[in-house]
Predict the 3D structure of the following.
Amino acid sequence: MASITLPTRREAIAEARRQGRRIAAVLPYHYPRALLRAHGFHPVEVWGPPGVPRDEGGRHFQSYTCDIVVRATSFLMGGGLDPADVILIPHTCDALQGMGSVVADFLQPSQPVLTLYLPRSDRPSDRRYLVEELRRLSGRLASITGHEATAADWDEAFAAEEAADLALASLYAERSRLAVTDRGFYTAVRSREFLTAEDFVAMAAGLPRGEAPGEGVGLTLSGIVAEPLDLFDRINDAGGRVVSDDLACGARRIYPPSDAADPFERIAGRLIASPPDPTRGSPIEERVRMLADLMRSTGAAGLIVFDVPFCEPELFDVPLLRQHLGEAGYPVLHVEAELGGSLPHQVLTRIEAFVETLR
Amino acid sequence: MNLGYLFGYQLAGRAGLRLQRWRSEWRHARTAPDPDRALNPPLRSTIRMREMMSLHYLEGRHVAGVRPVAWVTSGAPTEILKSMGYFLVYPENHAALCGARRHAEGLAVAAESAGYSRDICSYARTDLGSVLSGTTPVGSLPPPDLLLCSTNICQTVLYWYRVLADHFGCPLVLVDTPFLYEDEAAPHQVDFVRRQLEEIVPIAERVARREFSEEELGRVIGRAKRASELWLEILNRARHRPAPMTAFDGFINLGPIVDLRGDRQTVEFYEGMLAELDDRIDRGIGAVRHERYRVLWDNLPIWYRIGPFSRWLAERGVNIVASTYTHAWGELAEMMDADRPFEAMARVYLHPILNRSTGHKLAAMRRMVADFEIDGVILHSDRSCKPYSLGQIDQRDRLVNQVGIPALLLEADHNDPRSFAEEQAMVRMEAFVEMMSA
């Protein structure tokens, strides 16, 4: 199949409201979905969006600011986040730190602006801190709704969200047995950004099984967000296929299960144990090892790091990824593109040339 | 102890630098104010500061194998390492030094040749270029036995130090400081930082093969507190009209409070500098000969243009009397407490201006505008320091529209001259000065 059909974000929001949930607009990219659900919120993620012009956001942020932040600010100022009851801005990087602070201090939208500082390591002290930080967030949500999450709320939220997380992990595990194009696969993966957990599980179960269409040089895709989705068609046209990823909007959010009894411990344990990630301070050595293992196990011949401009967490790692993965026999291509509608010709040419060298 | 350390640093090095200082001080004493120059002679203390910093870098050339070496970020809680005898290298200070001496561009190009993007911080590129090329204007830097990184100034340092950890293969200790969106740190944030500070000790002991002493830590904190208090007093002397110093003097004399905080000589140095400023005030000597406008600077300096900028401004009667950046190393002095070292350090290192909200920074600027009788504000929109710069557009709007003073957003980069369009900037500066005179 060439593509899959999904509800729109608007429809997903309507469905969540029909289920009696409020809407949380959430900026990228690690956050506690089960905690939001236990407090009656449905998260809808904001990765730009790509089609929104930078102009309005550019009145608050300099030209050297991350595209996601500037476009999300444009979207907010243009009323795009009006359907949301709260805005959650996790502290993913300096750019989202700036956005969280500017929005809360100066732009002051009508909805409450919530923040979440994620620790940058996985020591016991980090876990302990994160548990308390999640409690703080829980307290804020409870004060907004006037309702403390009960044990039943938590049970329901974990059951739904962990089933959806498991469905996401299964999509990746079954990638080679899904009869969907790369574009279709990532359309499905990214629908986790706005579908309800139940709808996501149903969508994942409904994807056609069979032989994955298309042939070509196997590639692993890294970076923050694979946008526009046209990227996958162009990679296929060039003779490549995406067999695995290390994307912030993708496999970096495959959280391992946890059986902790305390809900905050359970969420913290899962967030902290997510795959190596520069925004979470993982040592480069761990990231290289994970990528080399991933590429070996999925048959990738090379790595494309696809970034939005000015993304420091990614940019610092690129030379060492190139060096270490190159030593392991995996060439690395780094390209940057803004979130706009189409890919620049220069980027396409570089991808084509890279795939050609891997044949 | 190796012979290089003994002769090159402790004997010949010290003596040579002291001689150089005496010569400079002798010349300074004989420099009469030049009525044709817009700036009065520079502070005598700066000569002593240069000796201290030169001596520090000279020790660094010979210190490997003599003392354990740690590379640390500028906002790192260094008192623990200092109390254990570590020699501390501040890559940011080193990068600034390279910038001021116009070496930064070449080093940044070396990093870019190795694949580092021009979009990452120019301090990081300068430092990584120095590491990769083995080139530095200070001769050489000792390789680290330990890296200590605190995120209280930015997340950039964590990405940067991960690269250093990969390069040097030594332990990286992180002190992660949650960003304070609210006015004060919450108890769980303080607790988190305190625990991490305590976790430094066993790692530092293992690397240094020395035992930690809380008593010694208390002494170091006591000296750090005193030096920070003096530094704040020094900066606040610029409230006087005419101001006896400029913010550029602050930038230049920042080295000891950043690099040598906790040392006895640093306290003595700032006592001397404060006395010199008081003497200037008593004699009515301003840093700018005819001070007409008093300006606040926000963000890091433009290291490679400090001299030309200060002269250009002084010729127009402008004195940049205060900066949010230099105050960062003084305003937390009151939080330091040698009796509760870890708890107090946790609070201190959570609260630097760079770890606080954009609204807090605006409030700090408003206070400084009042305290220093400011006529205008220059907000350096620093391409290389995004956490400091994001928020400046709204801050500027509020300074103009609510406080009612001219405010200029000046696009530049603290260390990379290629990101500074000088002609365009000077046209805007000219217009800014005109606005203050209107």
Notes: The mean pLDDT of chain A is 95. The CA atoms of residues 257 and 270 of chain A lie 6 Å apart. The two ends of chain A are 25 Å apart (CA to CA). Chain A has 14 helices and eight strands.
